[in-house]
Design a protein that fits this description.
The longest helix has 45 residues. The chain folds into 2 domains: 283 residues, no CATH class; 117 residues, Phosphohistidine domain (Glucose Oxidase, domain 1). It is globular, with a radius of gyration of 24 Å. It is an alpha/beta fold. The strands form 2 sheets. Strands 3-10-9-5-6-7-8-4 form an 8-stranded mixed beta sheet, covered by helices on one side. The protein has 16 helices and 10 strands. Strand 6, helix 14 and strand 7 form a beta-alpha-beta unit.
Length: 490
C-alpha cells in the first residue's frame, strides 16, 4: 500500500503489462489446471507411500522441502489463475449486469454464479449421504443419535490410521464397544472414505494447524444433525441453485440484442468459468498438508528424542533455519541445540497477538490508486462503536438469533442449529457449519470471499468485514444480522 511508481514504471505498466493481461488471463487457468496442480498431486503421491521411519533425517528434510515447495507454488498460482481471476471476472460481470442489463424484478448478479457442484458442496453431500445410510439402519442410527460425540470419537479411535497419515485425536479414557453393531465396521469404512476424499480441506493456510481428518468431531455433529431431521438437503439446495442460474441466464439472453447481449454473454461466460473452479482450487490447497504434517511430526519426534524440543508437535513453532541446523547436527551425530525456550516464547507471543485487532491496511488509508479500499478491506476497529457493527452486506436477508463465536475448529462443537456463525473468516472446511447457521458474520472478507459465496448458496444473511465481530460479540448474545444493509445489531 505504500508503493510509489516512477513515470517510467507507469508507462511500462500501461503499455506492456496491461497489454499482456488478456494473454495472462487466457493462460493462467490452463497453467494451474494442466501443469501446477498435477505436479503438486504427483509430488504428494510420490512420497505418500514412503515409510518415514526408514528415511534418514536429511532425506526426510529434503522430502519436506519438496512437498512444501509444490504446495506453496500451487498456492501462489491460485492468486492469478483462480482467486484473482474469479474476483476480477465476477466484479466485471456484476458491473456490466447492474449498469447495462438488470431491470426491476430481475435476479441479483450472484444468482448467475451459484449452484456449482464444488468440492466443499460434494463434501457436504458425502456427509449427508452417510447420515441417510445410517438412518436406514435403526440400531446404528439410534447409537449415533444417543451417544455423545466425545464417546463416538473414542469409539472411532484408530480410524486416523486408515485415513492415512495425519490423525492425532485426543481420546477419552473410557470407550464403549459398538463393534457388536453389525453395521459399525461399514460405518467406519464409509467415514474413512469421506476422510480420504475430503479430510485435507483446510481450516487455515497454516499447515501447522489441524485438518478435518485430525478430528472428526465436526463431521459427527453434522451426521447427528441430519439424523435428527435438521439441516437442508444439500443435493436439493445445489440443484435448485443450479436451475435458477441456468434459467436466469437463458431468460436474460433471450431478451437482449446487439452489444448488450454480447457484453452480457462475454462477461457471464468468463465469470461462470471461474466460479466453477474457484472453490475446487481453494479446497486443493491442502492436498499435501496431511503428508507434510506427518513428515514434520516424524522429524519433530527425532528432535524430541535428541532433547531439542519437548514433543513432536513443537516443531511447528520452530523457524526453518533452526530446523536446518538441527537436521545437520543429527546427520553429523552431534547434540541438537535446546530450542524449548524458543517454542515457549513463540507460543506465548502467538496467544497474546490473538487478542490484537489488526488495521485493515498498512499504512491505514481509505483509497489506493483512486480505488475505494472500503469495498475490499474490513472496517477499522475505531469506526465500530455502540451496539452496532457495520460491514459489507454479502448475502441478503434479516435474522435475529443467538450468536456463536468460533475461533477455529476446536470450537466447532459449540455450534447449534439456528445460531449466527461469528468467525474471523471461513474456509471450505467450515462449510458443514453453514448447514446449521441462520446467518454468518466475519471480521474479514468481502462479497467475493468464501463465506459470502457459501452463504448465498445456503440462502442465509451474511455480513463480512466487520473488523471486530469476534471481539465485540459474545457467544449466546442475541444479534440481528441484516445482510442487505451490512449491519449487525444487538
Amino acid at each position: 500500500m505504500r508503493v510509489a511508481f516512477t513515470p517510467h514504471q507507469w508507462w511500462w505498466m500501461l503499455t506492456r503489462m496491461m497489454a499482456s493481461f488478456p494473454r495472462i488471463m487466457r493462460q493462467a487457468l490452463p497453467l494451474w489446471r494442466d501443469e501446477i496442480r498435477p505436479r503438486y498431486a504427483a509430488t504428494v503421491a510420490r512420497w505418500q507411500g514412503q515409510p518415514l521411519e526408514g528415511m534418514s533425517t536429511a532425506e526426510l528434510w529434503a522430502a519436506i522441502q519438496e512437498v512444501d515447495d509444490a504446495a506453496m507454488l500451487h498456492l501462489a498460482s491460485l492468486l492469478v489463475a483462480t482467486t484473482g481471476a474469479s474476483a476480477g471476472s465476477e466484479m466485471l460481470f456484476t458491473r456490466v449486469y447492474e449498469k447495462l442489463i438488470r431491470r426491476a424484478g430481475d435476479p441479483a448478479a450472484p444468482t448467475f454464479l451459484m449452484g456449482y457442484d464444488s468440492t466443499p458442496i460434494r463434501a457436504e453431500k458425502s456427509l449427508y449421504d452417510l447420515a441417510l445410510w445410517c438412518r436406514e439402519r435403526g440400531d446404528l442410527a439410534a447409537y449415533l443419535r444417543e451417544t455423545p460425540v466425545e464417546q463416538l470419537v473414542a469409539d472411532l479411535a484408530g480410524i486416523e490410521a486408515l485415513a492415512g497419515i495425519s490423525g492425532q485425536w485426543e481420546q477419552p479414557a473410557k470407550a464403549s464397544n459398538p463393534d457388536e453393531l453389525p453395521d459399525w465396521p461399514e460405518f467406519r469404512a464409509r467415514l474413512h472414505a469421506h476422510l480420504r476424499d475430503y479430510g485435507h480441506i483446510i481450516y487455515t493456510l497454516d499447515f501447522g494447524r489441524p485438518l478435518p481428518l485430525d478430528d472428526v468431531t465436526p463431521m459427527l455433529r453434522s451426521i447427528k444433525m441430519y439424523l435428527a431431521g435438521q439441516g437442508l438437503n444439500p443435493h436439493e439446495r445445489q440443484a435448485a441453485a443450479e436451475t435458477k442460474r441456468i434459467q436466469a441466464g437463458q431468460a436474460t439472453l433471450n431478451r437482449l440484442r446487439g452489444v448488450r447481449r454480447w457484453a452480457f454473454r462475454k462477461t457471464l461466460g468468463l465469470a461462470q468459468t471461474m466460479a466453477a473452479v474457484r472453490e475446487n482450487a481453494i479446497s486443493d490447497i491442502g492436498l499435501g498438508y496431511p503428508l507434510l504434517r506427518a513428515m514434520l511430526r516424524e522429524l519433530g519426534c527425532r528432535f524430541a528424542q535428541a532433547g531439542g524440543i519437548a514433543g513432536s508437535e513443537d516443531i511447528f513453532w520452530l523457524e526453518a533455519e533452526q530446523v536446518r541446523q538441527a537436521v545437520a547436527a543429527l546427520e553429523r551425530g552431534e547434540p541438537v541445540a535446546d530450542m524449548a525456550a524458543d517454542v515457549t516464547r513463540r507460543q506465548a507471543r502467538h496467544a497474546a497477538l490473538k487478542h490484537v485487532t489488526p488495521p485493515p491496511t498498512l499504512p491505514p488509508r481509505k483509497r489506493y490508486m483512486g480505488i475505494n479500499m472500503a469495498e475490499f478491506t474490513p472496517a477499522a476497529a475505531e469506526s465500530q462503536t455502540g451496539n452496532q457493527l457495520k460491514g459489507i452486506g454479502a448475502s441478503v436477508g434479516r435474522v435475529t438469533a443467538p450468536a456463536c463465536v468460533l475461533a477455529g475448529p476446536e470450537d466447532f462443537d459449540r455450534m447449534r442449529p439456528g445460531d449466527v456463525l461469528v468467525a474471523a473468516t471461513t474456509t471450505p472446511a467450515w462449510t458443514p457449519l453453514f448447514a446449521m447457521a441462520s446467518a454468518v458474520v466475519t471480521d474479514i472478507g468481502g462479497p467475493l470471499s468464501h463465506g459470502s459465496i457459501v452463504a448465498r448458496e445456503y440462502g442465509i444473511p451474511a455480513v463480512m468485514g466487520t473488523g471486530v465481530a469476534t471481539k465485540r460479540i459474545r457467544s449466546g448474545q442475541v444479534v440481528t444480522v441484516d445482510g442487505g444493509a451490512g449491519m449487525v445489531d444487538w
